[in-house]
Amino acid sequence: MENRIKRNDFLKSLGLKGASLMAVYCGASALSSCQNESGVSPSGTIDFTLDLTNASYSALNTVGKYITINKVVIARISATSFAAVTQICSHEGQPQVMYNGSGFSCPAHGATFSITGEKTNNVSSKGITAYKTTLTNTSLRVFS
């Protein structure tokens, strides 16, 4: 007969042991946050243009919507402006950054960033790379 433990009971049994392990892991990185923040931007120069009449980019015609392309997150932040940042989170280098309606965030560990890429909480010790945008008619240029 197999002796099985329920998931909830298992998680409860971790309790202090799990918290202690996290404290040791995070404390080993200068007591600020769990981090691996080297080389987290896309390499090379960013310079591409999107045709906003293309169905693939249609989300950018609506304020509050965003797309991710070439490891860059591009959001429509108002009727006349856009924000673009790297998709690579500065916290642990994961390509998970998304637009949350007022700024950018990484769901992996809760890091948040302004529309200019500045950190807005203490999860990450630094911001993320932001890019320039220029809208000409229906062409949106994203560049560094």
User: Which parts are unreliable, with pLDDT below 50 for 5 consecutive residues or more?
Assistant: 18-41
State the total count of DSSP E strands. Answer: 9
Structural class by SSE content: alpha+beta
Looking at this structure, what is the CATH superfamily of the domain at 47-143?
Answer: Rieske [2Fe-2S] iron-sulphur domain
Average pLDDT reading:
81
Shape, per Cα inertia axes: elongated
How many helical elements?
1
Range of helix content: 10-25%
Distance between the termini: 62 Å
> In the CATH classification, which architecture of the domain at 47-143 applies?
3-layer Sandwich
- The run of helices and strands is HEEEEEEEEE
- The fraction of residues in strands falls at 25-35%
Strand order of the largest sheet: 1-9-8-4-3-2
CATH topology of the domain at 47-143: Rieske Iron-sulfur Protein
Radius of gyration: 19 Å
Q: How does the major sheet shape up? A: 6 strands, antiparallel
| CATH class group of the domain at 47-143 | Mainly Beta
Overview of the structural elements:
The chain has 144 residues and is α+β, with helices and mostly antiparallel strands. It has a domain at 47-143: Rieske [2Fe-2S] iron-sulphur domain (Rieske Iron-sulfur Protein, 3-layer Sandwich), CATH 2.102.10. The chain has 1 helix and 9 strands; from the N terminus they run αβββββββββ. It has one helix spanning 7-27; strands spanning 47-51, 66-69, 72-76, 82-86, 98-99, 104-106, 111-113, 130-136, 139-143. The strands form 2 sheets. A 6-stranded antiparallel sheet has the order 1-9-8-4-3-2, with no helix packed on it. It has a 3-stranded antiparallel sheet with strand order 5-6-7, with no helix packed on it. A hairpin with a 2-residue loop joins strand 2 and strand 3 (72-76). Mean pLDDT is 81; it is low at 18-41.
